[in-house]
Structures are given as C-alpha cells and as structure tokens.
Amino acid sequence: TGVQTCALPIWTHTIRYVGFDGVVTNIAGAPTLAALTDGNGSAARFNAPIGLAVDSAGIIYVADSKNNAIRRIDTANNVTTYAVGFNQPNGLAVGDNGDLWVADTLNHRIKTVATNGTITTRAGTGIAGSADTYPIAATAQLAYPRGVVWMGAAGLLITDSGNHTTRRLYTNTSINTYTIETDRKSTRLNSSHSQQSRMPSSA
User: Fold this and answer.
1) Which of 78, 92, 123, 183 could, after both became Cys, cross-link 53 (CB 3.0–4.6 A)?
2) Roughly how many angstroms between the first and final C-alpha of the chain, as a whole number?
3) 3-state secondary structure of 11
4) How far is it, in rounded angstroms, from Cα 32 to Cα 40?
5) Please, which residues have CB within 8 angstroms of residue 163's CB and are 6 or more apart in sequence?
6) 99 to 61, 73, 86, 131, 203: CA distances (angstroms)
7) Alpha-carbon gap, residue 92 to 68, rounded angstroms
8) Does 135 sit behind a cis peptide bond, omega within 30 degrees of 0 on the bond before it?
9) 19 closest CA partner among 44, 40, 37, 1
C-alpha cells in the first residue's frame, strides 16, 4: 500500500496529510493561528508542532512543542490534549505496549506516557551531559534529545542532538531496568522526523 505521510509545517501550526497524488489535506489546526485549543479539525490550535507518531489504530500523537504538550488526533480529526508538563518536546514513537516515547528536549530527558496517562522518566537527569550509565538509565545524561525511533526488542534509538550522537535505550531484562549506551561511530547527526500515517478525513 506504500507510505502515507503527515506533514508538520511548524510555523503554520497545522497538521497536514500529503497523498500519493501530491494533494495536501489539512487534518487539524489553522494556518498562522497559534494557541492551545482542543476541537475538531481546523477548530483546534497548535503552537509549533514538530514531531508525530501514529499507533496501530490510526491515532496521531503530536509533539506540540511551544505548548509543551502532547496532543492526540483521533480518526475523526478530534484533537485533545493527551499529556502536559514537557519542555519543548520533539520526537515521538509508539512502543509495542502502547506507551508513547517522548524526547523531552529542553528537559534533556526521555519519557513515556502510558495508556493510562502516567508519565515516567526513562532516561536523563534533567542536566545536559553525555554520560552513559549502567544499569540505571535515569542517571544518564543527554543534551537536547530530539528524534526517537522504537526498535522493538532492540530498544529505543535516540538522536542526542547536543552531543551529535545516537544513543540506545534498552531494557536489561535480568534486572528489569533501563540502560543507555552511545553509538561511538556516530558523528554530527541531524534529527529528522518522518512517520507513517493513516488516510485522513478532511478538516
């Protein structure tokens, strides 16, 4: 079936869909109107949306960076505020159990939002740095993490932009904790965000 694409033209504060035919459809938000407003389609408002992820049910999650929030868009384009308390979140990824992984960029942390709404810090002390730790990832340090990719059993891949490295967060099953490690071969990587998406309905 190919890949469907959602676009986030950040300073137009909208979520858009690009079809195979190149036609662009507005899913949610209104061009140039920045705010934090829940609603359907164009009645909703965002402020610099920068990252997104889509779950198996076609629900879109948006890192609404300047609102310091995660927004949720259902298949009818209803927008709700899913989680708050971040500091300019960027990358998002959906884990196998439905947890939403968040690069909480200006807090220098990786967090999850569980399906019941619980927010948990998985890596990072909140102070920018580059330290790997074993066995507890919560005492590791990151610097402006931006992109995240869920790799299943292999863990979570992180673009740690302030350190110009990729990091891997994975579960130590023997002690049931998270560990973080750095890819020593990576150099000056740039974060980018591209996600698979569902077919939209017009807003």
Assistant:
1) 92
2) 23
3) helix
4) 17
5) 130, 142, 143, 182
6) 11, 16, 16, 25, 27
7) 13
8) yes
9) 1
What residues contact residue 159 under an 8 Å CB cut-off, 6+ apart? Answer: 91, 145, 146, 147, 148, 166, 189, 190, 191
In the block, tokens 């909208």 appear at 14
Q: Tokens for 129, please give them.
A: 């740095």
Query: Are residues 127 and 141 in contact, defined by beta-carbon separation less than 8 angstroms?
Result: yes
d(CA 19, CA 124): 38
pLDDT tens digits for range 148-193: 999 998 899 999 999 999 999 987 655 456 777 776 544 443 433 3
The CA-CA-CA angle for residues 76, 27, 17, to 5°, reads: 120
